[in-house]
Amino acid sequence: MFKRILVAFDGSSHAKRALVEAADLASATDGELTVISVVPELSSWILAGPVPPPANLTELQDQVADSYRQDLREAVEALPDRLRVSSKLLRGHAAAEILDQAKAGNHDLLIVGSRGRSEVQSLLLGSVSEHVSRASRVPVLIVHGV
């Protein structure tokens, strides 16, 4: 039985659906749910292109983090009160942070959406869900959006 469930949330439709499934499973098993969001680290080379990068990359990074923080807060507040829920906002590479958190929190199930905010990047580098499912030492439930 899954008692310590970790769900990755980035505000995408797939992540929203994954959160619903995670909440249902946690409720059914009287388990604990940890909801995490991973803010990607921006760098000037990512922003290279026909448009010059912003003058203040740190300010842009803070705005991105604020967006993730707000999405995470709203998602957790919408969960049923009866659930035991904690949340964390992390920074870095999503797959690596999810895997690290699963290990550190001694979670027994990971739930991720099949696609997230960075769909274009996933086409080039492989999706977060694919990486997590290959590298995880605990079961991974990949949820598709509606």
Protein described:
With 146 residues, the chain is α/β, with parallel strands linked by helices. The chain has one domain (4-143): HUPs (Rossmann fold), CATH 3.40.50.620. Helix content is 44%, strand content 21%. The protein has five helices and five strands; from the N terminus they run E-H-E-H-E-H-E-H-H-E. It has helices at residues 13-29, 57-77, 94-104, 119-125, 128-135, and strands at residues 4-8, 32-39, 84-91, 109-113, 140-143. Strand 2 (32-39), helix 2 (57-77) and strand 3 (84-91) form a beta-alpha-beta unit. Helix 3 (94-104) packs parallel to helix 5 (128-135). The protein is globular and about 50 Å long. The two termini are 26 Å apart.
Written as H for each helix and E for each strand, in order along the chain, the element string is EHEHEHEHHE
CATH class membership: Alpha Beta
Number of helices: 5
For the biggest β-sheet, the strand order reads 3-2-1-4-5
Low-confidence stretches: 119-126
Strand content: 15-25%
Q: What name is given to the CATH topology?
A: Rossmann fold
Shape descriptor: globular
Secondary structure: helix percent: 40-55%
Specify the CATH homologous superfamily: HUPs
What's the number of extended β-strand segments?
5
Structural class: alpha/beta
Main sheet properties: 5 strands, parallel
Key structural traits:
five-stranded parallel β-sheet; 146 residues; 5 strands; globular; 5 helices; alpha/beta
Write a compact overview of the structure shown:
This protein is α/β, with parallel strands linked by helices and 146 residues long. It has helices at 13-29, 57-77, 94-104, 119-125, 128-135, and strands at residues 4-8, 32-39, 84-91, 109-113, 140-143. It is 44% helix and 21% strand.
